């Protein structure tokens, strides 16, 4: 058995650890398969094992059955919440009893969410992702040794923003929150909600999905894009009860999802749970801010020394009093070389003069070319206590990226110019070419002045060459239309068997000239597709012409048309020199003749592939050196009347 590589082990360990607790082994198996892609999954079939596994390897989330023999889900949840190490782990109850009292009791006990059995995959996954997202946000806050207890948190009335365009729904929700002691803000549309949230940031937002100016999903993303509201829980309250809508709402950033009509006790329990977590997070954040303020006062110099951005600070006399490691690396000097020396010795004087606080400059260094940097200058204090701090941001990576973007723009401009020129030449050559072909046809049909056989043969060569040039101009124009998005495909029922029978004879003259025999193998039954008959003929002629052109003299071109599943497959198999893998890698590049001088113009196959894709089909190529080439065109079958589906 192959051992996982270190990279695979790292990828696996980066996934969240999920603990599934249920006394029904079949339910555990279903949940395990359902959540296999969401994280690393462990199982427990009873409450005692669940607590033991949680203490051995604390999971990132627990999915917990409410009713189990011995320790039931409520006892397990109480044990988890009573353990300071395990209490932050979100617990989602999963039960087959649709009882509002059980749900409210679980949420008041500290559960993060409550889901009914049988589990719906999209709903369960969306709620797990929402809880893991909230846990990551909480864990992104700086840790402290002893998180605050709920009993020590300052008590104040929470502010809840209700967003619903229906005044009756607003009133129903407001009454449902009676007894929570919350301050209620009401908004009838998205813009009013944004104004209220900016002016008076709430502790929690209740949000409807269906509103006239913008839906709740868009509004949720706009609200959470505001820095002050990024951690505010958003609870969707809506009449749309399907799992798909719930999954979309939670993926959009929602913390919870409640369907109307709701039970007030359950709604209050859910909101109390969210507010409790919110208050704990706010208190932890405030404690950590104070901790870092004290640490910053004591060790600011040490912190700046290891900052990733280059930094120098000079006193009122312009002498450098602080330089960090990043600045020493950028300037290619040691700290002792910089301290005490004038700041303009290291930073160009023009970047330090004037009112502009940010400008670009070239930074001279000991080795190599000068480095382009952005110089940001900040001054604090006055007179003799003034400090001038300069941040130096290396612009080499940014300027290389900008150069790459400019190069790409030039390449795209050149490509568009080439396309326009080809289109221009195709149009300008078309008029005289039509005249040449027209007069050649008149000379051929002039029975009163017949041409001698030798001249008639030369006239035929002129006509053939003109038609080849005409086909090339047509292909060039088609490629141009594809690249500019102006190409149009007609959609109509086409019987492919008869179309192939009618089209292939047009290749007879070319086949005779190359001494290639065409072998047509077509099933007796009609094969109907939906496509553009003229464009399908163009594909048949292009592929057939290639099969003749690149065949060996005296070879055979086998054309097969058969039904394969739900598709009609038309293949062209030649006996030519075939292609190497390197040639096949560039097969569909326009104007690339794959090193075959004098054979074709390198555009027919690329255009054919575009046409097939535009009609919902696919084009495959199988080839090997000295083994010939098989090109297969597959188009989906349809009914004779044009409806999709496999014909009887």
From TrEMBL:
Domain Histidine kinase positions: 424-639
What the entry lists under InterPro entries is as follows: CheY-like_superfamily, HATPase_C_sf, HATPase_dom, His_kinase_dom, HisK_dim/P_dom, HisK_dim/P_sf, PAS, PAS-like_dom_sf
Q: What is its EC number?
A: 2.7.13.3
Which reaction(s) are listed as its catalytic activity? ATP + protein L-histidine = ADP + protein N-phospho-L-histidine
Q: PAS domain spans which residues? A: 296-340
Which parts of the sequence carry 4-aspartylphosphate?
65, 208
Q: Where is the Response regulatory domain?
A: 17-132, 159-275
Q: Which domain of life is it from?
A: Bacteria
Q: What class of enzyme is it?
A: transferase
Q: Which residues form a coiled coil?
A: none
Under what name is this protein listed? histidine kinase
Q: What is the organism field in this record?
A: Ideonella dechloratans
């Amino acid at each position: 058995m192959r051992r996982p590589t270190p990279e695979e082990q790292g990828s696996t360990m980066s996934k969240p650890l999920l603990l599934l607790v249920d006394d029904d082994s079949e339910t555990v198996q279903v949940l395990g398969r359902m959540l296999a892609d969401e994280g690393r999954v462990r199982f427990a079939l009873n409450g005692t094992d669940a607590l033991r596994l949680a203490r051995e390897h604390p999971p990132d989330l627990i999915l917990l059955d409410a009713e189990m023999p011995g320790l039931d889900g409520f006892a397990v949840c109480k044990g988890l919440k009573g353990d300071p190490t395990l209490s932050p782990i979100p617990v989602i109850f999963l039960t087959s009893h649709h009882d509002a009292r059980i749900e409210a009791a679980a949420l008041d006990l500290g559960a993060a969410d409550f889901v009914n059995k049988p589990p719906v995959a999209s709903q369960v996954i969306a709620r797990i992702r929402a809880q893991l997202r909230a846990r990551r946000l909480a864990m992104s806050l700086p840790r402290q040794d002893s998180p605050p207890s709920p009993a020590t948190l300052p008590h104040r009335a929470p502010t809840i923003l209700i967003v619903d365009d229906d005044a009756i729904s607003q009133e129903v929700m407001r009454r449902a929150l009676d007894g929570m002691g919350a301050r209620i803000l009401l908004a009838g549309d998205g813009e009013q909600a944004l104004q209220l949230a900016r002016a008076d940031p709430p502790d929690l937002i209740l949000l409807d999905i269906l509103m006239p100016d913008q839906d709740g999903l868009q509004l949720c993303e706009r609200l959470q894009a505001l820095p002050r509201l990024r951690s505010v829980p958003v609870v969707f309250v809506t009449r749309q009860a399907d799992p798909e809508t719930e999954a979309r709402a939670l993926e959009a950033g929602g913390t919870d999802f409640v369907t109307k009509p709701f039970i007030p006790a359950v709604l209050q329990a859910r909101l109390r749970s969210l507010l409790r977590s919110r208050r704990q997070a706010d208190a932890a954040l405030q404690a950590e801010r104070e901790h870092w303020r004290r640490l910053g006062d004591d060790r600011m110099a040490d912190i700046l020394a290891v900052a990733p951005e280059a930094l120098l600070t000079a006193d009122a006399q312009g002498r450098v009093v602080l330089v960090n490691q990043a600045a020493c690396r950028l300037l290619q000097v040691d700290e002792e070389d910089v301290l005490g020396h004038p700041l303009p010795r290291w930073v160009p004087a023009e970047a330090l003069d004037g009112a502009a606080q940010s400008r670009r400059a070239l930074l001279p260094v000991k080795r190599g070319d000068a480095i382009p940097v952005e110089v940001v200058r900040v001054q604090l204090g006055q007179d003799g206590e003034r400090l001038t701090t300069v941040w130096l941001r290396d612009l080499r990576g940014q300027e290389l990226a900008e150069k790459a973007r400019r190069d790409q723009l030039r390449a795209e401009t050149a490509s568009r110019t080439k396309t326009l020129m080809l289109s221009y030449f195709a149009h300008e050559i078309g008029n005289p070419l039509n005249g040449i072909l027209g007069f050649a046809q008149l000379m051929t049909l002039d029975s009163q002045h017949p041409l001698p056989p030798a001249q008639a043969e030369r006239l035929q060569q002129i006509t053939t060459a003109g038609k080849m040039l005409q086909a090339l101009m047509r292909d060039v124009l088609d490629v141009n239309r594809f690249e500019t998005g102006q190409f149009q495909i007609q959609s109509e029922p086409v019987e492919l068997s008869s179309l192939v029978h009618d089209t292939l004879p047009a290749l007879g003259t070319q086949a005779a000239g190359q001494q290639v025999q065409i072998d047509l193998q077509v099933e007796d039954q009609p094969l109907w597709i939906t496509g553009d008959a003229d464009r399908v003929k163009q594909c048949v002629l292009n592929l057939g012409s290639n099969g003749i052109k690149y065949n060996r003299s005296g070879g055979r071109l086998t054309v097969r048309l058969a039904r394969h599943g739900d598709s009609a497959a038309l293949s062209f198999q030649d006996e030519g020199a075939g292609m190497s893998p390197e040639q096949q890698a560039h097969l569909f590049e326009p104007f690339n003749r794959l090193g075959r001088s004098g054979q074709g113009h390198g555009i027919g196959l690329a255009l054919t592939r575009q046409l097939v894709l535009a009609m919902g089909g696919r084009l495959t190529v199988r080839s090997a050196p000295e083994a010939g080439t098989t090109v297969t065109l597959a188009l989906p079958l349809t009914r004779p009347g044009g409806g999709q589906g496999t014909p009887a």
